[in-house]
Amino acid sequence: MPQTVLVTGGAGFIGSHTCVELLKHGHEVIVVDNFSNSSPGAVEAVQKLAGRPLPLHEADLRDRAALDAIFAEHEIDAVIHFAAKKAVGESMKIPLEYFDTNIGGTIALLRAMNDHGVRRLVFSSSCSVYGETPKVPLNEDDPAAPTNPYARTKHICEQLLGDACARYPELSVIALRYFNPIGAHPSGEIGEDPNGVPNNVLPYMAQVAVGRLAELPVFGDDYPTPDGTGVRDYIHVVDVADGHRVALDHLDDERGLRVFNLGTGSGASVLELMAEFASAVGAPIPYRVEARRPGDVPALIADAGRVERAWGWRTTRDLAAMCADAWHFQRLHPTGYSASPTV
Ligand code: NAD
Ligand code: WQD
Questions:
Q1: Alpha-carbon dihedral 304, 307, 311, 312, rounded to 10 degrees
Q2: 269-310 pLDDT tens trace
Q3: CA-based diameter of the chain, in Å?
Q4: What pLDDT is recorded for position 315?
Q5: What's the pLDDT tens digit per position in 109-120?
Q6: Which domains does the chain have, with CATH numbers?
Q7: Where in the sequence numbering do the catalytic residues fall?
Q8: Which ligand is in closest contact with the Cα of 82?
C-alpha cells in the first residue's frame, strides 16, 4: 500500500537513495533536512531521477515548531529518520554537538510524532554500536559496546526508542544497523558527496581517482586479516535504500522495537576494495600504508540472517557494482553536487 513517508535527512547520502526507491514504488515522500551535511542539489537530482515531486522542508530537526508545522501540513503514515551527525572522529572533538543533534533530534521527532498520532518509525542505527568486538560475524543479540560518542548516540537512541515503545504500546519501530554503505545510484545522478576531506575509505579513494586528493592512506597493514588491512562488510547504498522500503512494509508485523543488521554477510579488505575500485576506474589508485587509525578494529562483518529470516530480504549487489556505481557518480560529478557534469 502506498504510504506518505516523512524522511528526515532525505538530502543526505543514504536518505537521497531511499527517497528514489520510495518514489519509484509509489510512496509519497516529504523531506526535512537542514543541509548541514548535504545540499539542495541532491533533492533536485532525486526529483529528476524519480520523475516525481519531492516536497522539501529546510529545517533543523530540533526545531519543534518547524516539525509541528510539517506534521500539521501532511498526513504522515510513517517516518524514516536518517538526520544525524555521523563522523566518528568529529564526535570525539565535539561530543555535546553529537548528543544534541542525534539524541535531541530523535527526542524532538518522537514528541512531534506522538503529538500528531504518527506511530510508525524506521531508525538509522549503525554497526558502530557493537564497538570493539573480536567476534565475526556480529548478530543483533551480541552485546553493544560503543567506543565513541557517535556510536553512543546511536546506542542511546535505540534504548530510548525501546523505552518509548514500552510506554506507548501502539508504537512500531524498526532500527536498522547498517554496516558500511558505499556506492551510488547506477544512473550516476546521486551519490556520496561529503563535505571536506572524506573520513571514509571509498569516497577518499574516489577523490584520489579524480585527482582531488593525491593518494589513499591505508590505515595499517598489520591486522590479523588475510592481507593485513582492515576488513569491512561493504553494502551497496541502493540495497540499504531497498531495505528501508521493505522495512516500511513490515512495520505493522508487530508493535515495539525490532533491531536488524543491514549488511551482506561478507567482508572485503582495504586492498581488495581498492583493487575492485581500480578495475572500475581502469587505472591503479595511488596509496601509501600508514599507521593504524586509532579506534579501528581488524574486521566488522554482519550476520545478515535475521532480516532474511524475518522478511526474506537480502542484498543483491556485489562489490564490483558498488565500485562501478561509485565511480560513475564521481566521474560525472568530480566536485560533487556543487558543479554540473563535466564528463
Ligand atoms: P549524511 O550526512 O549524508 O546524511 C544526513 C543528513 O541529515 C544530511 O543531509 C544532513 O544535512 C541532515 N541533518 C543532519 N543534522 C540535521 C538536523 N539537526 N536537522 C535536519 N537535518 C539534519 O549521512 P548518511 O551517510 O546518509 O547517514 C544517514 C544516517 O545513517 C545517519 O543517521 C547515520 O548516522 C546513519 N549511518 C550511516 C552510515 C554510513 O556509513 N554512511 C553507517 C551506519 C549508519
Ligand atoms: C573502512 C576501512 C579503515 C579511510 C565508519 C563508522 C561506522 C559506520 C561506517 C556510521 C577501515 C580503512 C579508511 C582511509 C583507510 N558509519 N581506511 N584509509 O571506520 O569501518 O566505519 O563508517 O555509522 O560507524 O565508523 O569506515 O570507511 O572509515 O573505514 O585505510 O582513508 O578503511 O582503517 O579498515 P569504518 P571507513
A1: 10
A2: 999 999 999 999 999 999 999 999 988 889 999 999 999 999
A3: 56
A4: 98
A5: 999 999 999 999
A6: 4-332 (3.40.50.720)
A7: 150
A8: 1
